[in-house]
Design goal:
Blueprint lengths: L16 H13 L5 H4 L76 H8 L1 H4 L1 H14 L14 H15 L6 H14 L5 H5 L8 H13 L6 H9 L9 H17 L7 H13 L5 H17 L4 H13 L5 H16 L6 H12 L5 H14 L6 H13 L3 H14 L2 H13 L4 H16 L7 H17 L3 H14 L5 H10 L4 H13 L6 H9 L5 H13 L5 H11 L3 H14 L5 H9 L5 H14 L9 H4 L23
Helix pairs in contact: 6-7, 6-30, 7-9, 7-31, 9-11, 10-11, 11-13, 12-13, 12-14, 13-14, 13-15, 14-15, 15-17, 16-17, 16-18, 17-19, 18-19, 19-21, 20-21, 20-22, 21-22, 21-23, 22-23, 23-25, 24-25, 25-27, 26-27, 27-29, 28-29, 29-31, 30-31
């Protein structure tokens, strides 16, 4: 069998380490996952239940390069020792319930309407770890001060170059496991240094292992190297090496295009030609769903590069056509794409907003599309004075029985801002009629709104938000909802709340999830005086990997001078894979050059378990990333994660599951 032709009955025996290790941890610990190797996506860390399948509908089943659709009954296996994880069963778009009500029956799976999922998909711009450190270092240099030698020390370009050799050496080992190979490829792509990269990655495009093929395609794009462009074009079009390229590898190549375009301004030269190719794929009813949506993301990245150009207008036109496609899941992703494109384009976009509202209010509009339209309106409705738009959106939220729509809409109101939306959101908290879960969502929406205010120019509005959130925090008795409100206080920089949040952290230190969010909120508040207390809670949690990593991120935000040494010392002595994984991920998130020698030592030793070596590669890639934001943060922020696609977010198999 040509390895580029994917047999739908075959599923990779070992999912990516950066997408599958959280499944192992969950199987061992039966606790909230760092779903997919460190990419924590909320309780359970598994796939949102959507009415859509990964790639199958009856009209598309003739494609010879099909992925195994979720209706096929096949499963995706995790790493050795992990239980298989089956995608959610579904009969495709036609099986969905009414737009307002959704599917009938009792859901036995996790509740993906919980606020934690929204936070985990959207957190990167709020955390902005690299940006905070860079800003502080620059300000200290301007003031003539030296940076504390114990503070986080990002790797230099020389440090990054020194990591290429160990990663390539490991990648080229005979019979390298998929876990190790995938982690090394993504790490090398993050570093983005050209020497030896393309020549080492390209052979994996013909590997018999599906995971290695698709990761190679993705890595070639993430790196953003011009040498990879012709290879990537052939893979994305399905014509590489005179073979029929499987759907997953084509999809990953298109996502790679999107990532590369985002990361490197000079990645492509003939953008109009690429735009035409991507649009043809996205608009084709004969293409599989995963490929079409991946092409939509590639189109989005191209258009966002030139928001005032004809290229953007052509892309907007193509994406608008997709709102009418018979595949409502593709339409849902197209709506999000339009929002992302227009968010960077000048103007009020009145006609587009009116069209979105009409679709939003139409009873025949599918549930997934309605949710996406709501998210997109929040991205592009930048005129707080547009009272009619606000009234119609609030009315739709209040009438809907779809929790996801209501809650995405609440966040959209916070993004749009304006006095009427502020009144509405504060009134919801003060009215006392909301369920506890909706109170947290409303608090987060106020956090989004308050974060966008200039405190000098909007001092009264900011204080009103801070007061409302503080009252809500004080009145909330349950730890997890209180931790969500604490994040909202952190988002707006309400430093007066710091001591109260610290009290809650100490009181609920045995509640791993809540304690992690309390710690993060203190990190957002830059509460440096509380570093010792956070360190005690987080680093004593040896068997609670979520708290270790969340607490370590918080300490990184607070520039704790001892955190890197503490984590590195623990990594040397850690006895279990679970402990090594949490510590390696924490070090990767911190991104400190002093952790690199120990990580290389773990990576270089073939006597170490595959998963330990793979996590070391993941951590090296995270620490040495040449970009300020993770490569897949732009796919996650503002996503309709209920609109399930296996190659986008799929139980360890999608690009949003990759660390």
């Amino acid at each position: 069998m040509n390895p580029m032709t994917y047999d739908p009955s075959h599923r990779p025996a070992s999912r990516k380490v950066h997408s599958g290790l959280g499944l192992l941890a969950g199987a061992l610990l039966c606790s909230p996952l760092f779903g997919h190797g460190g990419q924590y996506r909320g309780p359970g860390g598994s796939v949102p239940p959507s009415g859509g399948t990964s790639s199958g509908s009856s009209s598309q089943s003739s494609n010879p390069g099909a992925t195994g659709s979720s209706s096929s009954g096949s499963t995706t296996s995790g790493p050795a020792g992990a239980a298989p994880v089956a995608p959610p069963s579904s009969a495709g778009p036609a099986s969905r319930g009414a737009a307002a009500g959704g599917r009938r029956g009792i859901s036995l799976g996790p509740d993906y309407n919980q606020w934690q999922y929204w936070w985990e998909y959207n957190k990167e711009p709020f955390l902005d770890r690299r940006g905070r450190l860079a800003t502080r270092s620059e300000s200290e240099r301007m003031l003539g001060r030296g940076v504390d030698s114990g503070a986080i020390q990002p790797p230099s370009q020389a440090d990054r170059r020194s990591m290429v050799g160990p990663l390539l050496r490991t990648l080229r080992e005979p019979k390298t496991s998929p876990d190790i190979a995938s982690s090394c490829m993504i790490a090398l792509a993050r570093i983005g240094i050209a020497e030896g990269f393309v020549d080492s990655i390209e052979p994996f495009l013909m590997d018999p292992n599906q995971e290695k093929r698709e990761t190679a395609a993705l890595a070639l794009g993430i790196a953003g190297l011009r040498e990879a462009l012709p290879i990537l074009e052939k893979v994305a079009s399905g014509e590489y090496a005179q073979g029929v390229v499987d759907v997953r590898t084509r999809s990953f190549a298109l996502y790679g295009f999107a990532a590369g375009i985002d990361r490197r301004a000079d990645f492509v030269d003939d953008a109009p030609a690429l735009q035409a190719k991507f649009a043809k794929i996205a608009l084709s009813l004969g293409e599989r769903r995963d490929v079409r949506v991946a092409a939509i993301h590639a189109l989005t990245s191209l258009a966002a590069r030139s928001p005032e150009s004809g290229l953007r207008r052509a892309t907007q036109s193509d994406l608008t056509k997709l709102l009418e496609t018979p595949d409502d899941l593709v339409a849902a992703h197209a709506a999000i794409a339009i929002g992302r494109v227009l968010a960077k384009a000048p103007g009020k976009h009145t006609a587009t907003l009116e069209r979105f509202l009409e679709l939003l209010e139409a009873p025949s509009t599918s549930r997934d599309l309605r949710r996406s339209l709501c998210i997109a309106i929040g991205q592009i409705a930048t005129s707080p004075e547009d009272v009619d738009l606000h009234d119609r959106l609030r009315g739709a939220i209040q009438k809907s029985r779809d929790l996801a729509f209501q809650r995405f809409g609440t966040i959209a109101l916070g993004q749009i801002g304006g006095r009427d939306n502020l009144d509405f959101l504060v009134g919801r908290l003060e009215g006392g009629k909301l369920q506890q879960a909706d109170r947290v969502w409303t608090a987060l929406a106020l956090g989004v709104l308050g974060r966008g205010l200039e405190r000098d120019a909007h001092g009264k509005d900011w204080q009103r938000i801070a007061s409302a959130l503080t009252r809500e925090f004080d009145a909330t008795r349950q730890a997890l909802p209180a931790s969500g409100i604490a994040l909202a206080l952190g988002m707006i920089g309400a430093k007066d709340a710091g001591p109260k949040i610290l009290e809650q952290l100490q009181a609920h230190k045995n509640d791993e999830e809540a304690a992690g969010y309390f710690a993060l909120s203190l990190g957002l508040l830059s509460e440096r005086e509380h570093r010792e207390e956070i360190r005690k809670v987080a680093l004593e949690a040896a068997r609670r990997e979520l708290l270790v990593t969340q607490g370590s991120i918080a300490l990184g935000l607070l520039e704790d001078p001892d955190i890197v040494e503490s984590l590195t010392a623990r990594l040397r002595s850690a006895g279990s894979i679970t402990a090594k994984s949490s510590l390696a991920r924490a070090l990767g998130f911190l991104g400190d050059r002093r952790s690199l020698p120990e990580l290389v030592t773990i990576l270089d030793d073939p006597a170490n378990p595959d998963l330990a070596r793979a996590f070391a590669a993941v951590a090296i890639g995270l620490a040495c990333d040449s970009e300020a934001m993770p490569w897949n943060a732009r796919f996650a922020a503002g996503a309709n994660y209920h609109a399930y696609l296996e190659t986008l977010v799929g139980g360890g198999a999608g690009i949003l599951d990759i660390l």
